[in-house]
Amino acid sequence: MKTEINPSETSRAKAFGYWMKSPMPMVTVVKTFDVTNLCQESKSNGLKFNMLLCWCIGKAASKVEEFFTIPEGEKLFRYDHIAINTIFIDKNGALCFCDIPYNDDLQRFNNDYNAMSKTAIESCQNILDEGAAIIGTSAVTGTELDCIVNQYSGIYNNPFLSWGRYRKRWFKVTLPISFQFHHVQMDGGQAAQFLATLQDAIKNVR
Asked: What is the rounded CA–CA span in Å between residue 64 and residue 197?
């Protein structure tokens, strides 16, 4: 569920005034993560690496209040839950999009991820949750990437994370992840908090 809120009554009041009409209000930061534990959990339990990473993203975002508030047009909206937008190739070879609702229960999220992605792929139809604060993701795993800077259309202001293929180095596996966010939604401090919390979630996923 989404509810319009008055920006002047939120902690983002000044940011709304500064950045809402900016021609380029998006900020992109990049952090290299230690994903060794995520790879081990994926192999040990037969779970998809990208599913685990998406769950960790949702877990970290759910602890940062700003993720529930997203600017749209010249308004600010508050959402009551988070969903992770994932991109798949449907059976006809085209892109399809699927919003997986975040759940603290990893097994339930895994079940939703597998069932919903299968439905989207087979039906060639997007599965979207307009009542959720969407966090976009994109996995470009054809090669290793240092950074991805996403396009800014001025239509979608949701936070967005993207990554390439992870890197195996001796006993450690790393993955650079690009994080793009709207400056009205959060500042560098909240972004840094999220990235630190995401690393903790990755290291402690079970």
From this structure: 9
Q: Where are the extended beta strands (E) located within the chain?
A: 2-5, 26-34, 69-72, 75-79, 82-89, 95-101, 133-139, 160-163, 167-169, 172-182
Euclidean distance between the first and the last CA atom of the chain, given in angstroms as a whole number: 29
Closest CA to 85 of 174, 2, 160: 160
**Separation of alpha carbons 135 and 119, rounded Å:** 20
Three-class DSSP category at 115? helix
Q: For residue range 185-202, what is the model confidence (pLDDT) as tens digits?
A: 999 999 999 999 999 999
Instruction: Indicate the pTM of the whole model.
Output: 0.96
pLDDT tens digits, residue range 102-124? 999 999 999 999 999 999 999 99
Identify which of 116, 144, 147, 111 has the alpha carbon closest to the alpha carbon of residue 129.
116
Q: Tens digit of pLDDT for each residue in 40-77?
A: 999 999 999 999 999 999 999 999 999 999 999 889 99
